[in-house]
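Re: the request from the purification team.
They wanted to know what the chain is likely to look like in 3D before they choose a buffer screen. I agreed to run a prediction and write the result into the notebook, where they can find it.
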Amino acid sequence: MSTALRRVVLSGLMALALAIPLAAPPTAAASDATASVVATLDDQQDLRQECQQHAEADSAQGWIKSRFESCHRHHYDLVLARRGTNERIGTLAFDLWVLGFAYDGTRRVDYVASAENIIVSREAADADPTRWGIDMRFSAAVVNSAGSIANPNQARTALLGSWDTTPQWTITYTSPSDTATDPYGIVNGNVQLTLGVYGEGGDITPWSDDTLRYSNIRFDSAGRVAGKNEGAVFTNARVVIPFSLSSPTFPQSARHYNDAINNPVLTFPSGPKNVPGVNAPLHRTLNATIQDANNRAARKTCDEVWGPYDGTLLNCDEYPFATTQEGAAKGDGNYSARLIDARDNQAAGSWLVSNYTLNRLLDGDAFYIAITP
């Protein structure tokens, strides 16, 4: 048999396109999830286009665009061997895509997964690619918290023809708030993807991906402190809050933060400093006692350096912010306090809080700042 006759491209082979799935088809939950996906087709296409530009999308954790979007992608080129003898009987190539969407407003995370661009070749006369298939499984587990995740195990096990005809499926995870014991209804989760290739008649040696692709997620019902009452996020996202030196509303605040980090000799209290925010993260605190202590420590510095001041026209600006665990009351001297225009100070504070809610940052959540031109 010629090479041309032996090579099978799924999109052109009706037999594969009509292949009957295994006895273990996609679960009912997975089918229901596909019908109720929230992310729009435009959202999915936009994320795919961005994902292609990031090499880390091929890592175990994938590329995390934000607290609400993530993706995995990988191209597989596999050599398939006969079970028992390891004789090479064919090859299989396909692309894996997993787009993740968390939602600000509901305790839900969707993963849109697909096996696409499938190309298979038969290299042994008795090999039957119409009986080869892909097994894709998602499992979610609660981590370091109380509560539950609904329908934690979801799978699609189907022959290559079925994947070629319908390459995409959707996995949805939700977490009921009444199962959590945390005051904010927090349930932390870890989602694992396992991927395998099999032969329906057992003619090939099963293969599985050992990359252990994963995604860390969090559900909460934190209410006003997070903006919307409920939500979900990808917890490994790096949150960066920008402050522009040319901002029309808070240029003095931005200059202060820049000096605290990059020119500490210009700041008070005097002395060697290693102020976090760029090279090391800040962490939000919702503890009112800590926030008040940070305010008092910063005001004490302003009073000592500048003396009495009008709190209406001037404010004592502090960095790191009073709403962080790294604020002036921490006691390590790695902070700065400076008198600046009151409206500038308040505008920067409003910008900070809006970014807290935009990124659904809760107590202890890490973030960075970026000083931009």
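For the purification team: Residues 3-234 form one domain.
Please add any questions underneath this entry.
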